[in-house]
Structure formats: C-alpha cells, structure tokens
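Fill in residues.
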C-alpha cells in the first residue's frame, strides 16, 4: 500500500473512532496482544489520547507464556490503563470434570472468556452506564467474521461492540505496524500467532509439537491432565483420529513433519 493511501486510511479510522466513541461514557479496547488489537490500540491512542479509554485483556490462564507480559508492557508504553480479567475456574480442573474442549462442545469459550468478560462488563455498566467494547475483529479473518457488523449490540454481554478495522486486510495491518514502528508481539516470530488460549479446539498436533519444544514445562501441564482423564480420552481429536499429547512429547519433530500448522482459531474469539 502506498504511503499516501495508508495515511488516508489511518485518518479515516482515527476520525471514525473519535466519532463513535464520543457517543459512550467509556470505551474499552480489547487488547489480546495480537497484531490486529495492537493496531486498534494505537489508533485509539491517536483518536482519544491515552486517558480517553481503557484497555482490557482476558487472561485465560492458558495463554502462551510471555503473552501477558507483552500486553502489560505495551499498555505501559502507551500510558494506557489496563484491566486484566480472568476466569474463576482453572482450565485444567475443568478438563478433569468436562474433558478437553471439542468442536461440538467448546465449553472453554464460555468459562475462560465469556463469563469473566460479562462480569467485568456488568461492573463497568454500573459505573459508567453506557460503554462500548472496541475490538480488532476483521472481516477477512474467517467465514464467521465475514458476517460481522462494524457496530452491533452483543446479545450476551448487553453492550455495543465496535470493530474499527473490520474492512482492513491482514496486509494493511502489517503495513501499519511496519510504517508506524509498532512493537509487535515477539511470539509471532516463534509461533506464527500470539495465542491467548491453548485450548485444544482448532489446534493441530504440529502446534502442540512446537509448544512441547519451546515451552516443555507449560506443555507438561496438558500431558498430566490428559493422563488423569477417567475416559482415557486424548487432548486432541484431529481429522477423526485421537492424538495423545504424551505421544507428541516423545518425538515432536515427527508431528511437525506429518501435520500442518494451524495458526488461526476462527471462532474462539469472544467478540464475533
């Protein structure tokens, strides 16, 4: 994208953010630590100033090691107030009761994201009454996001949600980060994505092989809970086949060669 075209796109986004958020008493930028939410955070600072909104991070308890630290550092660099919310339940305890999340039984979204976010939103509404959640959702991310609206009323959270870069492409986001010198999350260089949740839905055996190689202590938590399942079930169910994390642990390179990486989770993000 030409510099002039990007500058015009940024100008339009800044003006729109200022206009939309002025209709609410408080704006919260959902900051996951990923590229899209980083761009929205930067745009919000340009539009509203660091005191004109607050950042909001959902700590699922099973994010990639280093993610939360990056989020805290980024918000400190912008001098933006950061709110960290998390579930009342430990993921691994829930796995022992419910089994690992599956495509048809994605309890992880409700317990790790929806419930803690709803609790925060209800408290914020009591204080400010009229709030908006600003998110980095983009239409071209997936077929689910393709149906999203720029401003809509979230039926579960009971508040307005605003997606300022909904029509941006991934290339626009990368160009913005490069042009304006934003400090991108270093986890992208390692994992291809800054995973805020390592639930096993939509993760491939190769993804967990990378985790086993790079963060063995964290990986072993999944192996241990898998071994305690009464059903003798596996953490992964990939292409109709059970795959056990203990087997990946024995030879992660084999699984890296055999399976593709899947660095996108199309419907696990809360604001869709």
């Amino acid at each position: 994208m030409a510099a002039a075209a990007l500058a015009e796109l940024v100008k339009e986004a800044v003006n729109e953010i200022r206009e939309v958020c002025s209709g609410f008493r408080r704006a919260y930028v959902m900051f996951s630590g990923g590229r899209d939410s980083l761009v929205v955070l930067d745009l919000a600072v340009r539009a509203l100033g660091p005191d004109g909104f607050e950042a909001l991070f959902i700590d699922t308890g099973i994010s990639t090691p280093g993610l939360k630290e990056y989020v805290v550092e980024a918000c400190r660099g912008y001098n933006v107030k950061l709110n960290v919310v998390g579930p009342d339940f430990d993921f691994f305890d829930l796995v022992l009761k419910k089994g690992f999340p599956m495509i048809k039984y994605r309890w992880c979204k409700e317990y790790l994201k929806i419930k803690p976010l709803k609790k925060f939103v209800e408290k914020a509404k009591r204080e400010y009454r009229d709030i908006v959640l600003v998110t980095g959702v983009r239409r071209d991310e997936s077929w689910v996001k393709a149906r999203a609206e720029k401003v809509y009323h979230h039926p579960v959270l009971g508040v307005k949600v605003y997606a300022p870069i909904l029509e941006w492409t991934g290339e626009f986001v990368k160009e913005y980060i490069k042009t304006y010198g934003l400090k991108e999350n270093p986890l992208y260089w390692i994992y291809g994505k800054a995973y805020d949740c390592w639930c096993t839905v939509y993760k491939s055996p190769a993804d967990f092989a990378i985790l086993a190689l790079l963060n063995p202590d964290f990986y072993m938590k999944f192996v241990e809970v898998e071994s305690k399942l009464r059903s003798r079930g596996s953490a992964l169910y990939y292409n109709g086949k059970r795959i056990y994390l203990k087997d990946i642990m024995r030879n992660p390179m084999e699984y890296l060669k055999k399976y593709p990486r899947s660095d996108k989770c199309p419907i696990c993000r809360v604001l869709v």
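The longest strand covers residues 26-30.
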